[in-house]
């Protein structure tokens, strides 16, 4: 295929630099991110309608142009300048890096100039699109990856990275100025990278791979937190707060699996593509990617098991604590209730004197014995000792 | 294929406007909608038998006729007029919109005039048909979609939309005057829509897509309710009412999955159809639909997990509350039962005087000491303090 | 293939009319029907051995002969007469309806005359055979369906219907005089039925379909009972009897799924058969059957979920009742145990008089105050009020 | 293929008749048979190494030679005699029945003479091999089946039966003198059996089938025991012993599934084999076998559900009993604790006489009323009645 | 393919012998090994980057050279010597055994000299790679196996063994001086082994097989420990320590399945490879391997069930113990609380004398009866007996 020539290039207004922050999602057991996703789905619009979501960033345009021996990197405030440079250098490979969606006109021009399908552009701008790959124009790729982050709110935050490849370029779209792609940029700058020597699909691979690599720190953060929770269970007290943390992490792991699974599917689909779309040489690298995706799934499964074990521990602890409370009650009651009976017995007022004045030797003679009180104290001590021995044998006095 | 010509067109009686309301289903844990579905299944009838269900609406007929440059929309009280217009305008594309089934003769004429298979017509009228697609007459489609709604009774209500395509028309059947298809009608009216320029299969796609789009608000409503339930659990008290709400939402999510899963299957089947039935160009749009269906499944899975976490929280809370009750009982009993024993001890009537009148110094001498009572009060205070320290250390006095 | 001519026709003895009743299975949690099935499996016999199970009915023979314009229906007490009529009318289509297996000779003659495979005949007579389809003699079908019934013992009762097709006949076997096939017979009698105009395979379809249709009333009965159980849980008291009912229904649903799943498999296999066995025209009808089977599976899944929700409700209720018991105990104990201590305190016998006759003002002076008793009663009332306020705030006094 | 001629035939030592008994496995919840299997796995040996397991029986050799019209059955104490007879009668079909493995030399000669693959011979001798089938030498089969037994220890015992087919023989290997194959021997002896007329593969089928048939009595025994457990739960008391029985049976069912599943796989693989290995005619019989295997799986699933229901009943019972204990405690405590307070109240020693000798009418005047004691008794009776009514209304006094 | 000639061979520095020990992982419920794996994943590096992990061993190089009739085994301190010998003897087969990774230069030279793909070398050095197989250079294999060990910390420890095959050599990589491959070395030394006569792929098979064989002792150790836990539950007391052990073993089994499953996949992939990569003759051996892998999976499933049964037993025990505590409390309270009431009754101070000095016969006349006290004692004894009978009948006095 010959070099690709965009069809138009009008002037663009200057780009402001205000960066609206998305409100942090409340972290809880219910999947509020999912609900938000459901709520923001546009209903009944004609397919391919482009809508800028509220809170989108003003776009910044970066262009990295490179070949085996050439490298140039710059931010353009004006789309036409970028386009002009791109058109003037068909012999170079270009990475057009669009960050921020808040300019519908710009996006429509990009769509036209680089012949991106309207449905793909809708996926770029939409709230949520699972990882996927589409082939269009016979051998161009549209790729969606999801970049994850484990936030301080114990949520998995995920942002979308969309890639469009062409004969001598890759366009990347994201609605964030900060990203996890700097390692790829550095490899390009260094000059030693294979990216410089290979086709743009290899750059798309490198970007996909780096996103996938970032799943591991996310998982490691979750794993660390699971260990924290385990320590809490072993040392502290089970309470609802702890349980809700456990369930929150469980939710995150489920969410993570929902992110990784389509990623794996995507790469498997790439591996099945014909050679004219993705060459065998590059598939070797995607195969490596595939292994990573499977291992990330494995990790998520392991964590799922860990969380389920934590739940079991938590519930067993809850039950144990009830047991402990009951044992205290039982020991105290069992010891003192009989004693109370005995002392109550000798608090009765049966009269020693019969109405006729004679002594009634049947009515509580113990009360009139000189040794009555000491003997009773001895009896009480005996009862207490007997019970203590019984409870000790049951193992209730030792710490479980 | 050439334009399609219906074969007959008798007069139809005028259409009354009474709209019987279906009795609201009782909302509960058991799936009464499923039981109703099982109960209404017609047993042993010959296939293709058409039966009007009780409570069906009197049909209203709408015709939208359009081409690239033409648009006309009208309600016909007389089927023959509609048919006449349809037959007179084979160059236009037509959307025949039938709302209400309560006229067997009309439906049979539609069946004949537009050559609809008897089994398909039975599916249209039947109580419940999963989403599905059939090809008939080589390249015509019969499509069933289910339109969902989340009612104030916390039930998912679903109505059936059946579509039949032909060379220059789409017939839609539903037993409701209100529907969720207005956005498609508006797009047609606006003139900018692709529907005006493409084949009737595209209109069928647009209708399928808008139904699928409406799954998202349903899910969002469920998601919102899950958050309400979560707040209730965290703030209020766990009771059976709350549990039955949780289980009801769980039932809804299960029901939703049963609705979406066949929808996905249906679209996957369309994507596998040969080009002469659904062209590649339109499959691109159905592919987009397919992504939406998968994401709706994903959402349902997320909510399933959330509900399961809510269940865990609920049960743990129930257990916690029992624990709290037990702790109160244990603390009160453990403090006062020993105290009662002590005071009972000094309520005994052991006699200080021996029968011979001498003083028995063994029998409860404490009672005769001037400091007896204050010392005892001190002892009691000591016991109470000891116990409070013990319980404090156990953490039973603090709020869990 | 040309018309089918049986090879022999000896006389048969007259048929008695005694109908032995199978002993009702005990309804319980364990699957006694499955155990009976395991127990009755014949071990180590050569394949194709025919054995009449104990309690089988004396066979009754019915013949329905029909064509587009002809219909005749009669019961034959003599197999030879039936065979003679059958052989004399090769231009007609015949439904030979065998009810009752208790005549090995008859069955062997049927096997020979209509060339049924010995293994199929063993399946007919065996205790239990999953729904299945086999092709033999290139284009003849052997079909097994299971007819379900929901008995008053809350059991799913299922009887086997075996069908053998031939060029101009269908033989049906069942070990019951009553069945659910009357609607098919009525359709045949009416003359309007498609069965009259189509091949015997269509009759086999109609019989299969009517059996499948009867799954719905069975499911509806189960659904109704689930609602009864739900009401019991909400209104009555949870007890073991109720739990065992829930588990029994769960067992039924599992059993139902085991019945429907092979039915679906069977029809899917028919849909994959080549045209010379089952023609495309008839497959359209089996496709409809297939939809019904899938929807029956869906229903079973819904009920499974409902039963699982009922279990959750039941267990939560059990726990709630314990909670309620504990709360009563705790409230009563917490109020009266401290009161008992206080009154015990003033039941002590500390002496106001010192041994030397002087008044000891330290020993329980309250007892000698004129306002002592009223003050104490006030104190007790205060304690009670304090506790009631505490419990009210905890929400223990209100109905949960 | 021509008749098969073994290559050598040396003399064999006489066979002793001592039969060592394998020590009975301890029956419990953990799967000790699995652990034993893991422990006995030979690690790091070269593949095809033959090792005689400890406790193996001294081999006994049986030869059944047959044709359509001929039958001869004998035990050989000398392998060479057997071989000589076998080689001298290539026109007959032979079943060489080897019982006991404790003679490595013999087994190696068998391996050589009948060209058995070393890996297959290793499978014969190994401790545990799942059911499987291998084709070797283009059209010979190596089959492994597992013969089950339900022991008095509530364990499923399984022994291995290995079969090797050849052009005119089947060799069966087992390490037991008793087996479940006698029905096949009897069918051979009777002369009516199809086995006499068909190829050795049919004999292999018959042996496989009879082993599979024996799964049913095993399942029936388990089913019977489940009913026993159910009765215990309904009549007796839940205790740990009962629970461990339930779990033991659950283990058996899981084990049974692990046995049957590969059996099904094995037969499915046979059904997929080309005609030159297993002819269509014999596949019809294996198809029947396949149905049996699936039905055995179905049975196991049913039992799994039953066991899970028993667990639910058991746990609910355990909870119910706790509830009952608590109710007794609560009723007794709630009735007597307030009464004790009241009587304690009137045991107080407030003085009627003021220090100045006047009567203090405020201090417990009730004690001085003539009707004091009867009134109090009435009050107590009233309290008791009130409580009984309360508890009766709660349903605590009736039997749940 | 002709013999393989490495391309370069510079001198290597002498090898030190310090062996750093990896810190033992803390054994617990959470999967710390998984977290460590996630943490060590290198993010954003260019694919094929080789990094030596901290704590890697200094490499030791072993060379075993063999043919049908020749065997030589030696450790080389200098890579060039090894390479020289290898290059000088193309007619021999070689096993180059690299143990320890702590020399990047050496590994890079191996990579170059034996044409190993950079991505494979990265897999060798990486922290964790699932079992896998890759074909490269048309017919060379890259194999990863995981060697397991059950440590005294109740953890499954797994080390990686990577194999690279070539026309006349196998290179094995591991980061451990000790391994489980000695049995293969011994078989090679013995001279009888098939390895000596077959291609290097057979050696790769033998190494894979011996690793797989070692899964069985690991499983047996786990099985033994499960039996220990079962005994603990039956004899000792349930406590959290025991529960955490159960969960730990569960984690190990899950981990084991994660190890074995890819192993099975790997071998299945080998079995599907074309003949020019792995010959049919060797596939027979891999088929045997495959059976072992499936049986190891079966074992893991069995243990999973056992662990789940242990959990059920544990939880039921926990509940039982609570029940026992409650019974003791209930028995003691139920007996003594009514007794206390009775004796409290007769401790009341109702006055026998009316204010006017007459005797009040209504106020507690029992106190003045000569038989009052003995009668009361009799009453108390009666109450106690009645309660004991009641509790005995309930079965609360016997040991459950």
TrEMBL record, chains A, B, C, D, E:
Residues 11-23 have a biased composition (Pro residues). GO terms for cellular component: plasma membrane. The chain crosses the membrane at residues 328-351, 371-392. The keyword Amino-acid biosynthesis does not apply. Keywords: Cell membrane, Ion transport, Magnesium, Membrane, Transmembrane, Transmembrane helix, Transport. One of its GO terms (molecular function) is magnesium ion binding. Residues 1-48 are annotated as: Disordered. It is found in: Cell membrane; Membrane. It comes from the Bacteria. InterPro entries: CorA_cytoplasmic_dom, CorA_TM1_TM2, Mg/Co-transport_prot_CorA, MgTranspt_CorA/ZnTranspt_ZntB. It is a multi-pass membrane protein. Residues 33-44 have a biased composition (Polar residues). It holds the Pfam family CorA. Mediates influx of magnesium ions. Belongs to the CorA metal ion transporter (MIT) (TC 1.A.35) family. This is Magnesium transport protein CorA. The gene is corA.
